[in-house]
Amino acid sequence: MTTISEPWYSVDLHGDILLDVLERRRNGERKVLESHHLPALRTGRVRVQVLAIYVWSEYLPEGALRQAMLMVDVLYQEVAESSKHFALVHTRADLDRALREEKIALILGFEGADPLGRNVELVRTFNRLGLRVLSLTWNRANLYAQGLAEDTQSGLTSLGVELLSLMDEVGIVLDLTHLSPSSFWSALKSFKGPLMASHSNAIAVCSHPRNLTDDQIRTVAERGGLIGLNLVPRFVGGDDLLEGVVRHADYIRNLVGLQCLALGPDFINYLPAVKEPPQQLLASNDQSEAQHELRPDVTVLPALWQTFRRRDWSQEETLSVFAENALRFFRQTLPVS
Description:
The protein is an alpha/beta fold. Helix content is about 45%, strand content about 15%. The chain is built from 14 helices and 9 strands. Strands 1, 2, 3, 4, 5, 6, 7, 8 and 9 form a 9-stranded parallel beta sheet that branches. Helix 8 links the parallel strand 7 (about 195) and strand 8 (about 225-230). It is globular and about 50 Å long.
């Protein structure tokens, strides 16, 4: 076990834990967050976890809304069953209360706006249920925008522009991760509210289409947004995963400064083989790159902390990346009460 004498904790901007929770509850399990995820989250000292609602392609389009509502439902049930350990955050007051009570604060997000169908006004309903972060697409295109794997260079659709307007109105953060370049820039022209790229690295360090160009990084930083460092090996590059993550952090800090850096590890070690076609995973044809690579989990965060410190990041700088930048962002963007 990694032992660290310094005080530290972490905020995770993107996790697909709800997919695992939904599947386990369908099989009759209860308290899934507490029994299957809490020990690892405690090892990673996660104080805030953004939970993404993601809908597998097999449910699209007819079942998308149903799947999203089921995930919201199981989240509420899980928090009620394990209220000693978890709290669903709607407001800044909720966040501060959860931190004060040493609970893990859960923030609800969408990874792809597919559940809304053509009814963009449903974003208001999800917002009332706790939705605070929304990405328009996953890698595939949808009714709102182009994803990285399906890009016609057309940017946002008219529905996408309408959705961004409603998000701005109710105060939902725009997540730019997975958008095609054309949709990325189109979204920034239409959306004036808070934004992040929740699980994206620097393309200059690892030349993968999931990563951000220098211009994209500069723009997110200039808008006061966050860039969550991703720990998926394909998006990190190099032979040593943790050293690679710090290389991305070094590059982004040298390019735009420290204030935009956060963690968006995209841990999926608890999921079965991803049920999406290789072209949408942006992987090789036999899927070996995506399906069989090392799957790090949240318990590597202590070792990542030590890697930052060994690479001459100060305790204060490292804590900024692990938690403080993200906490500041959410305190600025969440409703007050």
